[in-house]
């Protein structure tokens, strides 16, 4: 059966005179965009190459413009599909360029990966369009991704040391390129649970602006620590309340793995299996390092979900229902990522899991949109002393850059010592 072709289309929503007008790239199932719209931002354009995601976009939003691979369009064509006449009418551009080039899993080839070069195309678009604001969302791996290709431009020429082999050089290059283009850049690694999402999901969010004042970090609304007087983290039980489990759509665990899942209660994982069963259940994976927390994992009712991944039944990242002998359903995935129940995710069931698992949680999108609007309206931001956004250190633009330069300096000194040692031996 021939796959349905999803055609590009020109936006019919129209520019808003009262809201910030936004173009979205690498839009997926539009989790970020739903959050932005809820905050009061007018999303005019979606950009997506995956056919199932494109079908999801046009099924749920009849007025948004749609294009495919960002590399295939001129800046004029992008503007045309947005339904706008001038780039001056764009207030905000958002995007989560493909994260695989920066993920902590895989080869991590940085900009050498073709997907990393899509990232650079996105940066060039920002600097050409020059919106008031830009949002870049990505995985934690961006904080430590290393550049693997030679770039000789005004950005790299401004670096005081040989930075390229230092972990984080990809992010440093992006930040400096944007700053030389007239933007101030703030970022942090945000746990979406701190913004009302029933899920522990950490993502880097960069907020760039051409306005005088930099945009502060996002304001948390929830916390796992009562001392901050915020709402408690939302739980998996909070997320799925009211769902009819008889209508759940899901893939299955293999019978071999179900043998071990049936031994576990809610909130448990492989370490809760009998000692004499653990090695049999994990096989060669038993000898891997780390906690292996994703093996034979059942969610807990009264905790947020772990990060929902693109397939809930893959060994090492399994997401088992707290009580039923199955993975999480598509409907539960949607609730965890805060998609409206009536938001139709198109494609085969694996396509649906992938779209939802790759999405930005709607609650995090809402927090981003609310922050942009508040900054644009020049309103005061609430600062919570001592609040940490994630479990990691050195994740803000200030602490991260200080650590980056410290490591770069150390590397430079070590390199000079090695060179001197070689000269002494000659």
Helix content: 25-40%
Principal-axes shape call: globular
Helix/sheet category: alpha/beta
The CATH homologous superfamily of the largest domain is called Vaccinia Virus protein VP39
Low-confidence stretches: none
Which CATH class of the largest domain? Alpha Beta
The CATH architecture assignment of the largest domain turns out to be 3-Layer(aba) Sandwich
Radius of gyration (CA) equals: 23 Å
User: How many H/I helices?
Assistant: 12
What is the overall pLDDT average?
93
- Sheet of most strands: 7 strands, mixed
Distance between the termini: 70 Å
* Element order: H for helix, E for strand: EHEHEHEHEHEEEEHHHHHHH
CATH topology of the largest domain: Rossmann fold
Number of domains: 2
Described by its quaternary structure, the protein is single chain
Give the spatial strand order of the biggest sheet. 3-2-1-4-5-7-6
- The fraction of residues in strands falls at 5-15%
Q: How many strands appear in the DSSP assignment?
A: 9
């Amino acid at each position: 059966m021939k796959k349905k072709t999803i055609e590009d289309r020109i936006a019919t929503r129209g520019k808003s005179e009262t809201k910030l007008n936004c173009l979205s790239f690498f839009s997926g199932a539009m989790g970020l965009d739903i959050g932005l719209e809820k905050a009061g931002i007018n999303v005019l354009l979606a950009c997506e190459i995956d056919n199932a995601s494109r079908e999801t976009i046009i099924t749920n939003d009849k007025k948004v413009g749609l294009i495919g691979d960002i590399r295939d369009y001129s800046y004029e064509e992008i503007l045309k599909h947005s339904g706008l006449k001038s780039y001056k009418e764009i207030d905000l551009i958002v995007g989560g360029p493909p994260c695989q080039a920066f993920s902590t899993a895989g080869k991590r080839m940085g900009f050498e990966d073709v997907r990393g070069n899509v990232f650079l195309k996105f940066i060039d678009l920002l600097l050409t369009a020059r919106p008031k604001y830009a949002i870049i969302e990505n995985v934690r791996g961006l904080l430590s991704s290393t550049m693997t290709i030679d770039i000789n431009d005004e950005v790299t020429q401004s670096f005081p040391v040989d930075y390229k082999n230092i972990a984080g050089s990809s992010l440093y290059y992006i930040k400096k390129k944007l700053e030389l283009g007239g933007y101030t850049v703030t970022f942090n690694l945000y746990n979406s649970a701190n913004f009302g999402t029933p899920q522990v999901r950490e993502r880097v969010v960069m907020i760039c602006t051409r306005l005088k004042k930099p945009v502060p970090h996002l304001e948390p609304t929830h916390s796992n620590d009562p001392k901050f007087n915020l709402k408690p983290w939302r739980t998996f039980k909070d997320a799925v309340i009211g769902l009819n489990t008889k209508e759940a759509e899901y893939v299955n665990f293999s019978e071999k793995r179900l043998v071990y899942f049936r031994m576990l209660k809610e909130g448990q994982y492989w370490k809760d299996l009998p000692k004499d069963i653990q090695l049999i259940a994990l096989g060669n994976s038993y000898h891997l390092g780390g906690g292996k927390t994703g093996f034979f994992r059942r969610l807990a009712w009264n905790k947020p979900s772990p990060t929902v991944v693109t397939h809930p039944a893959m060994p090492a990242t399994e997401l088992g229902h707290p009580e039923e002998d199955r993975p999480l359903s598509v409907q539960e995935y949607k609730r965890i990522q805060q998609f409206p129940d009536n938001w139709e995710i198109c494609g085969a069931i694996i396509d649906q899991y992938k779209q939802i698992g790759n999405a930005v949680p709607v609650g995090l999108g809402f927090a981003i949109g609310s922050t942009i609007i508040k900054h644009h309206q020049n309103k005061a931001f609430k600062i919570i002393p001592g609040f940490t956004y994630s479990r990691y250190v050195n994740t803000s633009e200030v602490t991260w850059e200080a650590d980056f330069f410290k490591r770069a300096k150390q590397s430079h000194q070590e390199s000079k010592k090695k060179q001197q040692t070689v000269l002494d031996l000659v």
